[in-house]
Design a protein that fits this description.
This protein has a domain at about 1-160. About 65% of the residues lie in helices and about 0% in strands. It is built from 21 helices and 2 strands. It has a two-stranded antiparallel ribbon. The model has no long low-confidence stretch (mean pLDDT about 90).
């Protein structure tokens, strides 16, 4: 292991973070708001920490796999820490823990917030909140690889570390081309949604912020009432469509746009994911209608938006689901655990892994009845190796173990069971809102500091998909 190589790689990431921060500083200067000193200091810190290692540490030709994992993990942790500075230096509700919570929630695209009044913040801070989403959605590592001078070998190592093995199956391209495809789709979706939201009645500022949060499947809004503030079916429909698209594999979206066979219309995963979401919408809408919560159109409207929002880990809200029937909350918690597809900006277990799990269970039942049967799992006509199948089952088991352990720890802190259970699921899946004290139109500000720290760890585990963090701990113990 070469510490200087790791530090130089992370320096690239911090420098890029500083560049994004400088845009918010410009907005602050134009607005002449109270965030200028904090944003100026934060930008300088990020840029200086990025520039000095690039000056004094020689360039390297390659990264080892273990170094790549450490660059990804410590790159994310360093970015979250620096990203908290603008919040902390602004003050108000942003204590140190709250600032770090907001930053981690932003970069991991969780969307859980400690703020009780979002609308009092200056535009520059609101833009920084949304920018942390947009950086984190595609991944700060991916942004750095696209812009900063990494070697081809280093790019390959970092791409394999940042993008899960399951997601790479639908990227039939080299590392550099995969990165460009991610950027094209990401920027294209953001621009298109921004224009459509503005045409639907949002200001350009609100349209940009909500597009950043939608395409990143994050959920930070510029309004206290989230999307409910606009009370517009057109705006809700646009956001719902882009939440769904952002929850699909970007390689398949690229194939759809370019007319390739590897597209969303030929994908078994996309087809089944759509059917699962549709089933969830029908179940929730039916329960809401039968319990008299809304009329038939209102039930379908709110059910559609909330199921897609949580099912893609975005977390926007049009109503407070804390007051919905318990059955509907259970359905939403299932989607909070499952979430959307690999290769997207979504978090959670991912639908692809759940599909492998269900097919693995089916094959197991077949072998009980026919012990000599040879069973194979295929996803999108590609065979899933036994090693990948084992890795997926192991990932699901570890994920659920962490989920239940965190629920238990939160309960031990005196937090009620529905808040503990849903907050653990929402943060580990990078979804955002839960139920109880942390429902869709509430916030996490009332939780004790220990709970916030625990949930931040949850968010990092969810964003880095568990194994990278476990590997780093193993490497340090071994070293």
């Amino acid at each position: 292991m070469r510490p200087t190589t790791i530090i130089r790689s992370i320096a690239n990431i911090l420098l890029l973070n500083g560049a994004f921060m400088s845009v918010c500083l410009i907005v602050s200067l134009v607005q002449m708001d109270d965030a200028i000193p904090g944003l100026l200091f934060s930008t300088l810190v990020s840029v200086i920490l990025g520039v000095f290692p690039l000056i004094y540490i020689p360039r390297f030709k390659y990264l080892s796999s273990s170094e790549g994992i450490q660059v990804v993990v410590f790159g994310w942790l360093g970015t979250c820490l620096i990203g908290a500075l603008p919040f902390f230096l602004y003050g108000g509700e942003f204590t140190f823990i709250n600032s770090l919570f907001e930053s981690v929630s932003g970069y991991t695209t969780t969307g859980s917030s400690i703020l009780t009044d979002i609308e009092v913040l200056p535009r520059s801070i609101l833009l920084w909140r949304s920018t942390t989403h947009w950086i984190g959605g595609i991944g700060i590592i991916v942004f750095a690889l696209l812009i900063m001078p990494f070697s081809r070998h280093s790019k390959m190592i970092l791409v394999k570390t940042e993008i899960s093995e399951v997601a790479q199956r639908s990227f039939h391209f080299k590392a550099g081309e995969t990165l460009r495809i991610l950027l094209y789709i990401y920027v294209g979706l953001t621009l298109l949604e921004t224009i459509l939201l503005h045409l639907a009645g949002m200001t350009w500022f609100d349209a940009v912020n909500h597009s950043f949060a939608t395409v990143a499947t994050g959920g930070f809004s510029t309004k206290n009432q989230s999307v409910a503030y606009f009370d517009s079916f057109t705006i809700e429909a646009i956001i719902a469509v882009f939440m769904f698209l952002s929850g699909l594999h970007f390689g398949l979206l690229f194939g759809t746009v370019t007319g390739k066979n590897n597209n969303i219309f030929h994908s078994e995963v996309v087809r089944l994911f759509f059917l699962f979401l549709a089933g969830g919408v029908v179940l929730v809408a039916l329960k809401l209608y039968l319990t008299g919560s809304y009329d038939i159109s209102g039930s379908l409207r709110h059910s559609l938006f909330q199921v897609v929002s949580l099912g893609t880990t975005t977390g926007f809200a049009t109503v407070d689901t804390a007051h919905w029937p318990f059955f509907t909350q259970l359905v939403l918690i299932y989607f909070t655990l499952q979430c959307a597809c690999v290769g997207s900006t979504s978090g959670g277990l991912k639908f692809d892994r759940m599909l492998v799990f269900f097919k693995s269970l089916k094959n197991y039942l077949i072998r009980i009845r026919h012990p000599n049967a040879i069973t194979v799992i295929r996803i999108n006509k590609q065979t899933v190796t036994e090693e990948m199948e084992r890795n997926i089952i192991l990932f699901i088991l570890i994920y659920l173990f962490i989920f239940f352990l965190n629920s238990l720890l939160l309960s031990a802190m005196g937090i009620d069971h529905i808040t503990s259970f849903s907050a653990s699921a929402a943060t580990l899946g990078n979804v955002g809102p839960g139920f109880g004290q942390v429902s869709s139109l509430a916030n996490f500000g009332g939780l004790p500091a220990g709970a916030k720290i625990l949930l931040m760890i949850n968010m990092i585990f969810g964003r880095l998909e568990i194994f990278n963090l476990i590997t780093v701990v193993y490497l340090f113990r071994k070293g």
